[in-house]
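2 proteins. here.
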Amino acid sequence: FKNNANKYYGKDDFDLYNSLTDNSSEIECLFVERTKQLLKDGGIAGIILPSSMLSNEGIYTKAREIILQYFEIAAITELGSNTFMATGTNTVVLFLRRKNNYESINLKKSVERFFNDWQDVTRNGIEKPVSKYVNHVWDGITIDDYITLLKKAPNKTVANHEIYKEYRKKIKIKTEKEFWNEIIEIEKEKLYYFILVYSQKTVLVKTGEKNDEKHFLGYEFSNRRGSEGIHPVQRSKTIDECTCLFDDERFDNPAKASTYIYKAFAGDYEYPIHESMKANIFRLRLVDMLTFDRAGFEKNISTAIKKKVKIESKWDLVTIDLLVQIVRGATYSKEYQSNTKTSNIILTADNITLDGEFIVTKELYLTDNYVINQEKRLVRNDIFICLSSGSKEHIGKVAFIADDTNYFAGGFMGILRAKEKMTAKYVYILLNSLLRQDIRDISTGSNINNLSGILNEIKIPFPPKEIREKIVAEIEVLEKKEKETKKSITKAKEKIEQCFKEAYEKANVTYKLSNDEIFSVSIGKRVIDAELDIHGKIPVYSANVFEPFGYVNKYLITDFTVPSVLWGIDGDWMVNYMSANKPFYPTDHCGMLRIKITEVLPRYLAWILHKEGKQQGFSRNLRASIDRIKNLTIKIPPLSEQQKIDLEIEKIETQIAEAQKIIDSIPELKDGVLKKYL
């Protein structure tokens, strides 16, 4: 290429031209520079490159410098070796937006000024950027410590730091003067790129490996005679229908990767990630994808998901163990467990809800002669936390203890205890919001997820007392609103229950569910994993008749013009009312009841079925089989009574739906408070 290109291009056409080797195997680097030349400010591009572009050295480092200086990286899509036929090459797609040249030029001058005056002023729109750089890279030292390094007289803290030791080990310079000049240049370059990318977020799309990759792409290649070429992974479907990469009709399909890239170009990094995409879509800070803590700085862009918990803030960061005492829960031998209630009550993770409420639902008892350290008792202003769990969903969940209790934290639990309420509440707020998902992600263990030895190292912003007080006060207003709204929902549900009970008292007719002239009783059909489709439109209900466990694109039932009543055949006893014109697919763990006469309304039928099933003791240990359901006899009130409560319940359910919207908005409002102050 290089020899042939001499006819058309010269060294003046590409800054990277002279860095090409004779065989020009790095021609993709010129593609990057050419993209820079072609795009105007704000222009966007998607460019497919070998994965080596992100990590190789030499001319690749220079190409990455062009990318970082002149583009925002909106997204990176990693594509495995099965993406393109017969190449065997791992590739990435970089989704880029062209920046103004002056941004990088002016920042470079600004960084030069810092190394002359050492003033940590706002640069590139970032407050105290050098302090942020030191916190991010030089863990454990202050900006004052860092400046001693730049003055070529490092204090003891810097001299003992691993980065400084690595500089001493790796920089092979003859004189001390050359050594310091080299360090200053490296630090200058690191600080420049740190500030340059600090505000950028990047969407990372991972297609997975082997079968996961194949199903994410939605296609596979075949070399079999007569079937050569590319084929959809599901028969009778097109690749467009199978792929998770894109939707050729919609820009906002949450089950397609292209949606998150589209949102990134629009600056929206808060768009909820669909459950089916959580193993493939990640949002990272670009600054976390670069490695600054090595002697060399090659601007490698890492797509590895680093397990790290850190809130970027304008305030100093401190480790949690400086603010709270971490108390482990009580451990005990099984011989001390009691089946009868005692004064030694142990609480497990079951007593903390996923949204951070303390609700006692499960007590364990130890014999009264067993002595538990009183330090492990839950008292006012404690933070009750799950330190170990087999579930990622439950690990790290927290509850704030408002009053002294007679309960002790269990063995898989812990207590975070501060000296005063305001600090405790502030730490709780962060653990239950900004840090919640990060803590799930950093937990370790093959079978049991564990936070032991990790929690105390987590750093959180520690603003002045008046700022913490404002945060706590504003969050408590939202918590009060949330609590009151939840109470209103509870009261509304109680009102619905009362409506049914009043109607039941007027019941004057008895029906047996085995009467085929009045009721249609049936069960669904087994659904295997291979039949589930993350893009499916029809929800599949199993024993849990309230939450679908997946989706399909086929029907078992064709007529949805009438309502249905679903019940769970095994598992906890559940009954759900399904309104008309709402398609669903029941499995063989889900029963369906429909009414053939007008004298019985389905909403009342769902309630009375649940009531009768509860009396029968249907549970995990007693299946609600179709025969047992048909054996039930139900009491029905006059139609006028059923119609009356139907109208009333519809009104109440509308009120509940509106209240739920308020509750659903609270987490975002809390995050807004934290972002405003931190």
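next one coming up
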Amino acid sequence: MTLERLLKKKKKLQAVISTARVYLEVKVVPNLIYAVKLLLRTAPQNASSESADDVPTLILFRTADQLDAEHLQALEHVLMLVCHLVHLQDAFLIHFCDAVLIINVFGLFNMLFALGKRRLRILLDLISILTHTLRKQPENAEIVAKILLVEDANQLHLGELMRNSHAGMRERCCHLLLMMGRHLPEASMQQLWSEEVQDTLEALVFDSIESVRNAAELAVIELKACKFYLKTSQC
């Protein structure tokens, strides 16, 4: 590599570091999480037809099928940037965890799992973010659990995601399951685990894509020693 190319590479790296520092200072990730909440919010409505100042305002949010192409595009860009930043530096990941907790978007992030057939990129990035959170910040596993286990209208269907035609989705689901098994409480795994999830994971050991097979095999080897793993399995 020539000196000129080395200097260009160094200059580019310095620019990335400088940009990351600014992003941390202005709290870009928390602002992006809040942007997700604003994107999903509908127009405010009064709880009553009366026009009194003390009438409470209902804050309603769009469901997955109410999101148009513009909303989906914006969500995709936001999640893509958040995913990049949390993998770039741990400080961004800490900002992400804090923002999800403070802004209280557990249910909204769970709703994004319903977008698999319309905008798969959003789910790929979301699963990557959650997996990375468990890997690098296991002390924040409860935040991930609250996203995966919302009480009302849970949109997470792990078995379906693991059977997705996109190899990257199948592989990322295996990585997520492995991190879930390592770091989520036993009670949470009992709720998330099922015969369908286990059978699908074991089937992925024979997937046509090598990276999926490897991820599935690693997950099966480790998870089968866990209490929640169904012992009737032959794998």
